[in-house]
Automatic annotation (TrEMBL):
Keywords per UniProt: Signal
Keyword Signal set for record: yes
Annotated protein name in UniProt: DUF3558 domain-containing protein
Signal sequence residues: 1-25
Length: 189
């Protein structure tokens, strides 16, 4: 069990690396695995990966934000997607999906970040976390959950630098609703 949990945690860390690598910020390090698709279209789904679970219109309905670029990645058991607005690195919406054998107890003790709040009525276990901005981007709101079909999902919205943390705090409940919608779609497929 611990080996599979470690693999799931590694997958999540890799997903974070993939998600970070999808923005346009210049770096001096290796870009990592290639992005499978970067598309500008009306349908995010055509990028593949976790983008198959996202749709620009549905995202707009939840967040009232227009995204028009989708980039997908894949690393072992983790698929990812990042939505952006043209060439602007932020705001962005990222989704990572990893297969796991973890149960709710392991998710709560080993996956849920320190300082995250539990979320009820989402998968087997879930959390929300609002984080401060950095020198590069504004604050973020993240929802992570363990689906009933053996997946760990992380949905994160990162604001541009000019936003205050209160904006991420206000957005978190909306992301929870969006996560519930995604979870219902994932479990049904």
């Amino acid at each position: 069990m611990r080996d599979r949990l470690t693999a799931a945690t590694l997958g999540i860390i890799l997903a974070g690396s993939l998600l970070t690598g999808c923005n346009n910020a210049e770096t001096e390090t290796d870009a990592g695995p290639p992005v499978r698709a970067r598309v500008e279209d009306t349908q995010a789904e055509i990028a593949g990966g976790a983008c198959e679970l996202l749709n620009f219109g549905v995202v707009h309905d939840f967040l009232d934000v227009e995204f028009n670029v989708a980039a997908a990645g894949e690393q072992k058991e983790t698929i990812t997607c990042v939505l952006q607005q043209g060439d602007a690195p932020w705001p962005d919406l990222s989704l990572a999906v990893s297969e796991t054998s973890a149960d709710a107890e392991v998710f709560g003790s080993d996956v849920k970040p320190e300082g995250a709040e539990a979320v009820k009525d989402l998968g087997k276990a879930a959390y929300k976390l609002v984080s401060d901005g950095t020198k590069d981007h504004g604050p973020s709101a993240e929802i992570g959950w363990l689906s009933s079909n053996g997946r760990i999902l992380m949905l994160r919205y990162t604001f541009a630098k000019d936003q205050q943390k209160a904006a991420a705090t206000d957005l978190a409940p909306v992301l929870v609703d969006m996560a519930k919608d995604l979870d219902a779609t994932l479990v049904a497929t």
